[in-house]
Amino acid sequence: MSEFIAIETGQMGRIAYARIAPNEDLVKAVEKLCLVAEFKNAFVRGALGSLIDASLEKGDGQTIQVSGPAVEIVSLAGEVRSLDDGSVKAELTGVIADPEGNVSGGFFIAGANPICMTLEVTLEEWLPE
Amino acid sequence: MALRPEHKSRTRTFAHPGRYNPVRVNCLTSNAGKHIRLYLEPGICLYDGLVKPLATMGISSASTTVFGGYFSSLDYCVAPPDPKGEAVIAYSAPINAGQTYMIFGNATLGESSDGIPMVHCHATIRTKDGFIKGGHIITESAIVADRPISVLVTSIDDFMIKQTFDQETNIQLFQPTQRDHYV
User: Fold this and answer.
1) Closest Cα in chain A, distance from residue B140 (Å)
2) Residue B63's closest chain A neighbor by CA?
3) Label partner for B91 (CA 20 to 30 A): which of A72, B26, B163, B171?
4) Which pTM value belongs to this model?
5) pLDDT beyond 80 at B166
C-alpha cells in the first residue's frame, strides 16, 4: 500500500477480540494481533486497558510523556495496513488518563507505550474491493 | 560507577506477582458480527441500558462505543499503584463526578466469573465542575440524564468474552473464551 489512495471502498469482514498481556507494546501488539487473526487490513473497533507510561507524538518532533502506572486508555481509534514489503503497520490515536484522571491525547508512538495490566481490543477486518 | 544513560524512548518493564504467561496475544475471531444501534434510556444506569436490550437479542458479548451524552450522576475510578501490593495497580475508590457529560466511551460487554453480565467501560468525561477527566466508569451508578444516548454495538457471536482470573497479574479480567468451554 505504498501508493497514496485517496478513496478506498470495501467492506467489513471478520471480528477479532484479544486480550493483550502486560509489558507488550500497544502499537506493536495491535500489529501482532493482525498477524494472529490473519487480517491484512483492519480498523480498531474498540479498546480499553492501561499502560505503564505513555508516549504520544506532539507534532513538532517532540513527545508528550505521561507517567504511570497506570495510564488508562480511555479511547482508541486507528487502523492497521499491510504494506508492500510484507509488514503490517498500525497507526493509533487516542485519549489517555494519568493516575489522577487527567487526560492527554494524541498519536501513540510505536514501541513506547507498554501495557500495564491488560488491553482489551476489538478489530474489524477491512476488505478493500 | 556511572550508569549508562537511558535512551529517552526506553520503556519500563514491570514484574507482576504471578508467573509469566507465554501467550501474550490471546485472540479469537468471529466470522461475522452484528452491528446494532441502540439508545441508552433516560433514567436508567449505563449497565442496564446496555445489558437488557442486548440480552433480548441474545447478545452477551460485544464491543460498544458510547457516543456523547449527559448523565445525571456518574462515578469513575483511576488506577494508581496497588497500596496492598497484590497487583501492580488497583482501581481507586469511586470518585463522584456529579452531573457529567460523557464525551466518548468504550464499553465491553461480557460475562463475569460468576456467570452474570458484566460491562467494562472506560470513558472521557466532563465533570460537573468543568474538568475533563478519564477513567474506569462504574456502570451501575452512571445514570442517563433526560436525553437518550446513542451506542454503536458490534456483537461477538462465535465465542464469548469471559472474566477469568489471570495468574500473572493476579486480577480477574476479560479474556476471549470458546463457548463450548462453558456448556
Assistant:
1) 18
2) A46
3) B26
4) 0.94
5) yes
